[in-house]
Design a protein that fits this description.
Elements lengths: L1 H5 L2 H12 L21 E3 L2 E3 L1 H18 L6 H4 L2 H23 L6 H9 L5 E2 L2 E2 L1 H10 L4 H23 L5 H12 L1 E9 L14 H8 L5 E2 L2 E10 H5 L6 H10 L5 E2 L2 E10 L6 H20 L4 H8 L11 E5 L6 H7 L11 E3 L2 E11 L2 E2 L2 H34 L5 H7 L4 E2 L3 E2 L11 H7 L2 H6 L6 E4 L2 E11 L2 E2 L2 H33 L12 E4 L7 H9 L7 E6 L5 E10 L8 H29 L2 E3 L1 H4 L5
Antiparallel strand pairs: 1-2, 1-22, 3-4, 5-19, 5-21, 6-18, 7-14, 7-15, 7-17, 8-13, 9-10, 9-12, 11-12, 16-17, 20-21
Length: about 625
């Protein structure tokens, strides 16, 4: 009951996750028009996915991988082609859903959006939605409230599409039985490996092979223009340090706002609930009331048994295990009949049976905290902070104009504005226009201004840019390097190693496939087979490609053979010695336990099929050259 009265956690948790995991979107408009300049990574219908969107999504995925792996991750792995490909595929899928939602005019009502945002725990203060917390949390993600709300609305529209497809998934008990039988099937196999390393010595590159590759793939070895910059940040925090509040001003504020610093009465209580829904039948209500009356009679005879009886009889899962204890709460936290009963009792008193929409309650008030004013010394720090922010807010508008004018009028240096407003001049490492960041800010307008001719060749300050609500940044170029191709000599060894590995991988696959073909004809092949081991779909000890090959091979005649590429680039042939199929009865209890998992798998399959159908409706083209890692 208590959980139902106080919160709906599910929606809050989902939306909090949306805030913590950064979005891969650039706002609603970018779905339906060309993105920022640069090489487009993909097109979906007439909509383009820009390199800037891809770089941001890649950076966010890399950050998540670092966090999941404890921070120690090989940079080459994070920038590998499979990672980059998965990011662009995800962006394509998101764009497909967004276009479908727009085409079908799916909407998110403003009231729905407000309700979702208001339910996020991170935006709450003292049990209520706080606009200050909301704006601070959004700014911490480098967004304005308008950007966040636009992206959230877009995400909710796409969720409508995904949920509609997922909810349509249908599964029968016989399908689940066959699925479980397939998962539990066992096959005994031995393995003949063709590792890449075994063929490296056979690879002979032409003398000019590396040079030819370098000349044919010149864009892969180009480093974009980059620069180092110094910059200053101006926001309300910069003004706060210039503001002071006297004890007298704080005292006057305290006295003028006494009601704000009073603590309303709070009460702690415990209860026993006998459930009876608001729409329960008369017979169900009568039985619940009779049981509650019986419990109340026991408590009147021995009030000390309240906690014991609550643990045994209460049907409130949130409090029964604690002897019915609900802790302290004020007015407005509970449903009205419950609250009225609590505030009508004295400490230690037990109520009559109280009816609410949840059922019948027996309540005991265990403690009372009387209303009282918080002393000045206790709240002085809060008052001073509030008054400082009020004063800083007033000064901010005036000084923001000073900031903008100074960086423009004295454009050959940031020192004048730093001295005037007591700001710190900071410096960046080497940054590029696409995917670059000036400190914590990835603002596109700021980066474009820095890479403009006025800033690069003349060394002038860029005009003040509002990178987030209430935060202005100006910067100037300290050092600039134009775009250039990495010299062939620096990448020659890496190219040769890549070409040798590719050739050795091709040889391994050719030899492995030839061996598989020979074995399937009944011929023998040279090589050392591994010891026989048992594999099962439900417990994959082999890579997924190998599992698919082994269990996809016909087993009418044994031994049977299958082959698959290995993760290291080699090839493996598998000899299937025996097959053990387990029969599952139609009433096997495992079928019920598997039902939810199987329905999710079917829903995922249907959703993937839906995405494929969208790819047929909106032509998808991926620029593979733009997705490949850049050679350093």
């Amino acid at each position: 009951m208590l959980e139902s009265v106080r919160n709906n956690k599910r929606v809050a948790q989902i939306i909090l996750a949306l805030l913590i995991v950064p979005f891969a979107f650039f706002g609603l408009d970018s779905y339906f028009q060309d993105g920022p300049g640069g090489t487009d990574v993909a097109t979906v219908g007439k909509s383009k996915i820009s390199s800037a969107e891809f770089d941001q999504a890649l950076r966010e995925q890399q950050d998540r991988l670092r966090e999941s792996m404890g921070g120690e991750v090989d940079r080459a792995l994070l920038d590998s082609e499979p990672i980059r490909r998965s990011v662009v595929e995800n962006l394509v899928n998101q764009r497909l859903l967004a276009l479908h939602a727009a085409e079908n005019r799916l909407i998110v009502a403003p009231q729905q959006l407000q309700q979702v945002i208001a339910g996020v725990d991170a935006f709450q203060q003292d049990g209520r939605f706080s606009i200050e917390r909301y704006e601070a949390a959004v700014r911490a993600q480098g967004m304005t409230p308008a950007m966040f709300e636009s992206r959230l609305a877009q995400d909710l529209r796409m969720q409508q599409v995904a949920q509609a497809v997922g909810d349509s998934a249908f599964t029968s008990r016989e399908s689940i039985r066959r699925f479980l039988m397939a998962q539990l099937e066992e096959r005994k196999v031995s393995e003949l490996q063709f590792p890449v390393s075994s063929f490296a010595a056979e690879v002979k590159l032409a003398d000019d092979a590396a040079r030819q590759y370098y000349d044919a793939n010149g864009s892969r070895f180009e480093r974009p223009a980059r620069l180092r910059a110094e910059y200053v940040v101006f926001n309300q925090d910069a003004v706060l340090g210039q503001v002071s509040v006297s004890d007298e001003a704080a005292r006057k504020f305290y006295e003028a706002n006494a009601e704000r610093f009073s603590q309303p009465e709070e009460r702690s209580a415990r209860h026993i609930l006998i459930s009876a829904a608001a729409d329960a039948s008369a017979d169900e209500v009568a039985k619940a009331k009779e049981k509650a009356d019986g419990i109340l009679k026991q408590l009147r005879a021995d009030p000390k048994r309240f906690a014991e009886i609550a643990k045994a009889e209460s049907q409130d899962p949130g409090s029964a295990s604690r002897g019915g204890d609900l802790g302290f709460f004020g007015r407005g936290a509970m449903v009205k009949p419950f609250e009225d009963a609590v505030y009508g009792l004295g400490k230690g008193q037990i109520s009559e049976v109280v009816r609410s929409d949840f059922g019948f309650h027996i309540i005991e008030v265990t403690d009372i905290k009387a209303a009282h004013a918080r002393p000045f010394d206790e709240v002085k720090g809060e008052i001073v902070e509030e008054l400082k922010r009020q004063e800083a807010s007033k000064k901010f508008a005036e000084q923001a104009e000073v900031f903008s004018n100074t960086v423009y009028e004295q454009s050959d240096s940031l020192k004048p504005v730093a001295d005037a407003l007591k700001l710190e001049i900071r410096t960046t490492d080497w940054i590029e226009r696409v995917g670059g960041a000036v400190g914590d800010y990835t603002n596109e307008k700021l980066l474009n201004s820095l890479f403009a001719d006025e800033a690069v060749t003349k060394g002038r300050n860029v005009e003040a840019v509002e990178v987030s609500r209430g935060t202005l940044v100006s910067a100037r170029v300290v050092e600039h390097q134009p775009a250039q191709r990495t010299p062939f000599e620096q990448v020659k060894d890496a190219i040769e190693q890549q070409l040798k590995t590719e050739q050795a991988t091709k040889l391994a696959a050719e030899r492995g496939e030839a061996a598989l073909a020979a074995l399937q004809k009944g011929e023998s092949v040279a090589g050392e087979w591994s010891a026989v081991r048992t594999v099962q779909r439900a417990k994959p000890e082999l890579p997924q490609a190998a599992i698919s090959a082994v269990f996809g091979a016909p087993s009418t005649k044994l031994p049977a053979y299958a082959g698959a590429p290995t993760q290291g680039g080699g090839y493996s042939v598998f000899r299937i010695e025996s097959v053990n199929r387990i029969d599952i009865a139609k009433d096997d209890p495992r079928l019920k336990a598997l039902e939810g998992q199987y329905r999710r798998l079917v829903a995922e399959r249907d959703f993937n099929a839906f995405l494929e159908s969208l790819r047929g409706r909106y032509e998808v083209q991926i620029n593979t050259a733009a997705v490949r890692p850049q050679q350093q």
